[in-house]
Amino acid sequence: MSGIYLHIPFCRKRCTYCDFHFSTTFESYRSALLEALRLEIQLRAPELQGTVQTVYFGGGTPSLLSTDELSELLAVLCANYALDSHVEITLEANPEDINETNLIAWRQLGINRLSIGIQTLSDQTLSWMNRAHGVQDALFAVKLAQNIGFDNISVDLIYGLPNLDLPQWEQTIEEVLNLNVQHLSAYCLTVEPKTALNHLVRKKKLQPADETQQSEQFLRLLALANDKGFEQYEISNFSLPGFHSRHNSSYWAFKPYIGLGPSAHSFDGRVRRWNIRNNTAYLKGVGKNENWFEVESLSANERRNEQILLGLRTKWGLDTTSLTSGWTQKENAQIEEFARLGWLKLDQQKIILTDSGKLHADGIAAELFRLD
Q: Is 346 in contact with 318 (CB distance < 8 Å)?
């Protein structure tokens, strides 16, 4: 499977918690950046062999793009890559951009999956987040998309928020799942450097949920999603049968993909490549075909470590036969200890985390890493 990710670094507003690469003052160079992105699409075509199974417009806020802008990007993709006849094309969309005109146009362009950034069902919290939509906007957007014919819709939620108690979180999950969406992504709030949230926390003006509250909210999410027939196929992702994100699943399966646009990452199985995290420098570099990205060749241990980290996050677990070498005596002892704690189970040649183990996923993986 080959996938293409396009990073659209435009946003209306700066969310309090967000550290993704984006700009809110992009209009003066909007056309130039999109032209650079179209050029990069062409320049990178030789890197992907075979059929492209997935295309993902992320950001930023790709739903800010006009129909013509999206059409032009898709046209260049189709002209330079072999897109599968059943290609999954995902568009991340904010509720304020979702209207009947846009939805009809997106479907006509071939976009067949929407990822809608709801985040929370509290108007007060949305205001604190500096989001541009309200709760009713979000609920209406999902229902309108369904009425227009979208039948593969994912929504994003955040837990571990300040002042979010367990009953409120339960109500949010139930209300979202009652919308009859096919997919749910839920992420724990993290305090990232250089964000407004980090500033508020350092000034002691805000306190996110503690680890106990985060764990309670996570485990309640698992139970309620399961009750509604949703399968947790990756730690932060849940879907009805047949509605896994095919694009994101390729990341966790350690498969090759290309990332296009400023700050986007690519991986070919051995080499990671990432584009410069600066819009002006990106468009100038692509225009000259020089100095717009960096590369890193992964060592054998680094590839192994990433396989462990990614594999443990999924419901399929870590397939130990895919590793280039077996476990050392020390590593086997560590695995047995995690099993004794009830954090993982061994299923033939696979290591699969339990629900309680998922709370410690990164720590478990780190204990099994090998250093160069």
A: no
Tell me which residue range forms the domain holding 335: 300-367
Half-sphere exposure of 138 (CA within 13 A, CB side): 24
Residue with tokens 């993902």: 56
- Residue 293's φ and ψ, nearest 5 degrees, are -155, 165
Residue 303 contacts residue 268 (beta carbons within 8 Å): no
pTM of this structure: 0.95
Q: How does pLDDT run across 44-71, given as a tens digit for each residue? A: 999 988 899 999 999 999 999 999 999 9
Cα–Cα distance for residue pair 160/216, rounded to 1 Å: 9
- Residue 28 CB-density burial (10 A; 0-12 exposed, 13-18 middle, 19+ buried): exposed
Residue located via tokens 């059409």? 71
Q: What is the DSSP string of 301-315?
A: HHHHHHHHHHHHTBT
Cα-Cα-Cα-Cα dihedral sign, residues 170, 171, 175, 176: negative
What's the pLDDT at 1? 53
Let me know if residue 292 belongs to a domain: no
Q: Which residues are bridge partners to 8 per DSSP?
A: 59
Residues 91 and 71: beta-carbon distance below 8 Å: no
In a domain, 324, yes or no: yes
